[in-house]
Amino acid sequence: MITALWIMVALAALLGMILGYASIRFRVEGNPLAEKIDAVLPQTQCGQCGYPGCKPYADAIAKGEADINLCPPGGEEGIHKLAELLGVEFKPFGENAQPKPKAVAFIDEQTCIGCTLCIQACPVDAIAGAAKQMHTIIASECTGCELCVPPCPVDCISMLPIEEQLTNWKWRYPVYALRQTS
Amino acid sequence: MIRLHRFHGGIHPPTHKAESTRTPIMSAPLPAQLTIPFRQHAGEAAKPVVQVGERVLKGQLIGEPVGAISSSIHAPTSGTITAIDLQQIAHPSALPDLCATLVPDGLDEWGVRQTLSYRQLSSDELQKHLRRSGIVGLGGAVFPSDMKLRHPIVVDTLVINGAECEPYITCDDMLMRERAEAIVRGIEILRHALGTDAVLIGIEDNKPQAISAMQRAVDDSSHPFKVIAVPTVYPGGSAKHLIKVLTGVEVPSGKLPTDVGVQCYNVATAYAVHRAVEHGETLVSRVVTVTGNVEQPRNYEALIGTPFSDLVALSIPKADTNRYIMGGPMMGVELPAVNVPLVKASNCVIAASDALFPPPPAAMPCIRCTRCAQVCPVELQPQDLYWFAQSHNFGKAQEYDLFDCIECGACAYVCPSSIPLVQYYRYAKSEIRARDHEKRAADLARERHEFRQFRIEREKQEKAERLAQKERAAAAAKAAAEAAAAIPTPLEPNADAEDTQQMRIDAALARAKEQAATAHPRNTEALTPEQRAEIEAIEVRRAHIHSLAADAGADDEPPKNSQGN
C-alpha cells in the first residue's frame, strides 16, 4: 500500500519535472494563433479595422477582442478563411465596411509640392521622394491602403483601380446560356 | 529498329488533315498593314526600340528582350512604323496589348543579315544569336529557344517533334514535305549546340509523305538521325508524351525534359534556326494552316503581323462561317475578331460554323463514369479535378496535381455529360495563380511594414541616444569649466554657486570689452589714393546737402542718421 503510494508520488514528481522542463525548453515565442491569422490577412496595413495594422488586428482577433468581419481588403473570402481557421460562423460585413475594388495610389506630379507627409503616412514605404522634391508611388509595392490620401495638403493623390490587363487576366468560371423551353 | 512505348489514354478524333494538304504552301501577299505585338513569346514582353515614323528594314529589330525569359521582335518587311499603341490581339480575353503598326513600302528590303558558320560557334554564341533572331518554339508554346540551350545539364537525346497530333493543323506536315533539307540542317545546328549524338525525329504515321521526305533528307545529309513513325494518338505531339513514346522515359511531374537528359524542339523551330543561322534571317514569317469552313483550305507562309482576315479572305470563307479559332479544335482559342494579327504562336486558323462544330449540348451532371480518367494522358483524375474546381476548392485541386494538366481536352471530348472540363481547369489554374501572386504581394507588404516599424523604432532610439550624448557632453563641459574656474582661484575654493556665476559673467564681459577694443572696421584700411579721393568727394557732397537742408527749414529736424559735421 505504502509502496504503491510512494510510486505514484515519485511518478507525479518525475512527470511534473519533465513537464516543467518542457514548458521552459520548448516555450513558443509569441502567439501562434495570431501568426496564423496574420498570414490570412491581406497585409494592406490600412487600419480600416480600427487597429494600427494587420498584426495588431490579428492579435486582437486571437485574444477574442475583435470581430472577424472588419477587414474590407480581405473580402468575403478573407472572412471565410478566418471563420474556418477559428472554427466560428461566417459573418457578413457591417454597413460601414464594404470591400472596394483593388487600387493603387497615384501622385499627380504636377501638383505635388514635396511635403513628405504622404511618405510618413505610407505603411510599406512605397513612396519615393524627399523634402521639396517630387514624390512618386512605387506601384508594385503599393497595397492600396489609402493612408497617403488624407495627409496630402494639395490633394494630389488619387486611387486608381487596377484594371484588367493581359498580365492579370483570369479565365472565367464556365457559365452556360440557359435555353428557353416552352 | 527502335522500340516504341505507349503513354496512358489518348483519343482518336477525326484528323481532317487531308483538306489542307492538297496544295503546296503558298506565299501570302504583302498585306496593306502589319500589326506586330511585342508579346509573342512566353516570358516578358519585348521593349520597343523604334520610334513612330521611323523607316525600318525587313528583319530589323523593333523590340528587344527584357529579362532572362524573353525574345526579340523584328519588322516583318520594310516600311514605316506608323504607331506603337494598344491593339487587339489573338487572346481569349479580347484585351488589347502593345503592338507596332507597320505600313509596308512594298520593297521588302532586307536589313543586315548576319550569317554564321555553326561549326565554329560555341553553344553560348548560338544562344545569343537565337535570342537576337527572336527564335521561339513554334509548336505553340512559344518558349524562347535560346533558353532551351542554356541548361548546363547534359542532354543525351535530342527529340524533334513532327508529330502534329491535333486535328486540322498541317503546317508542320507541309513544311516537312517541302523543306525537309532545311529542317535537317536546322536539326544539325541544334544537335551541335547541345553536343548530343542521338537525334530522334518523331512523326505521326498519318503523314507518310512527310516521313519519306524527312527520311530522304536525312539520308542525303548522311547525319545519323533517326526518322521514326509514331502511332497517331491525340495528344501524342505534346513534348513530354512524344519523349515517352520515343525513349520510354517519363518526364516527372514538375520537371523539365532536360532533367531526364532529353531536349525537344519542333520541326518548324528547327527550320527557323536554320534560316537564322545560315541565312541570317530573323523570325519574321511562319507557315500557317487556314482550314475549316473555307473553300480552299491550304497552308500559307505569312509575315508575322498579317491580319487573319487577309489570310482567311485568300481561302474564301463559306457564307455560314460565324467564328474563327486560332490553333486546333481541341486546344485552340476563339479569336475575339478576325482582323487580329498573326503571331509566332499561330499555327492554324479554323473558320468555324455551327454546322462544322455544332454547339455542345447543355452540360449534364457528372455521373462519375471515369471515362475522362481513362483517356487522360497525364493519368490525372479529371472527374475529381472538375469537382474541386467547380466548388472552388483550389487547395484540393492542387493536391490532385491540377498543374500537370496539359489542357489537351481529351477528357471533355469523351465526356458523356458534355461538361466543359478544360474550362473548369483553366479557371482553377488562373485563380490559383492569382492567389499565389496575392500571397507573395502580402508577404512582401508584411516584410516592408515590419521593416518600417523597425526603422522608426531604431531612429527613435538613435535620436534618444544622440540627446543623451549631448547632455552628457554638456555636463562634462560644465564640470570641466568649473574645474578650470576652481584652479586659478585656489584662495576661495568654497565660493558658492552664485559667486562663481557672477565671476564667469564678469570674465565674459571683460573678454567682450577686450574684443571690442581690439576690433577695427576692416573696410577702411589700406585704401588706394583714388578711393580716398572718392570718399573725400562724397564727404564734401554730404556736408553740402546738410547745409542745404539746414537752410531749407529751421523747423525740419536734422536727419536722424546724420553724423555731426
Question: What does this entry show, briefly?
Answer:
Chain A is built from five helices and four strands; from the N terminus they run ααααβαβββ.
- Radius of gyration of chain A (CA) equals 26 Å
User: What helical percentage do the residues of chain B reach?
Assistant: 25-40%
Question: Unreliable stretches of chain A, pLDDT < 50, 5 or more residues?
Answer: none
Q: Could you give the count of β-strands of chain A?
A: 4
Task: Write a structural description.
The complex is a heterodimer of chains A (182) and B (565). By secondary structure, chain A is mostly helical. Among the domains of chain A are: 32-86, Electron transport complex subunit B, putative Fe-S cluster (3-methyladenine DNA Glycosylase II, Chain A, domain 3, Orthogonal Bundle); 101-163, Alpha-Beta Plaits, CATH 3.30.70.20. Chain A is 33% helix and 8% strand. Chain A has helices spanning 2-25, 32-40, 54-63, 75-86, 117-121, and strands spanning 103-107, 127-128, 136-137, 157-161. In chain A, the strands form two sheets. In chain A, strands 1-4 form a two-stranded antiparallel ribbon. In chain A, helix 2 (32-40) packs across helix 3 (54-63). By secondary structure, chain B is an alpha/beta fold. Among the domains of chain B are: 19-25 and 112-352, Rossmann fold (3-Layer(aba) Sandwich), CATH 3.40.50.11540; 367-481, no CATH class. Helices cover 39% and strands 15% of the residues of chain B. Chain B contains 15 helices and 17 strands. Chain B has helices at 123-132, 145-150, 171-178, 180-194, 208-221, 239-247, 267-278, 308-315, 371-375, 382-390, 394-399, 410-414, 421-486, 497-518, 529-552, and strands at 26-27, 34-37, 47-48, 55-56, 61-64, 73-74, 79-88, 96-104, 157-161, 198-204, 226-230, 262-266, 285-292, 298-303, 323-326, 333-334, 348-352. In chain B, the strands form four sheets. In chain B, strands 1-14-13-17-15-16 form a six-stranded mixed beta sheet, sandwiched between helices. In chain B, strand 7 (79-88) and strand 8 (96-104) form a beta hairpin. The N and C termini of chain B lie far apart (128 Å). Mean pLDDT of chain B is 90; it is low at 556-565.
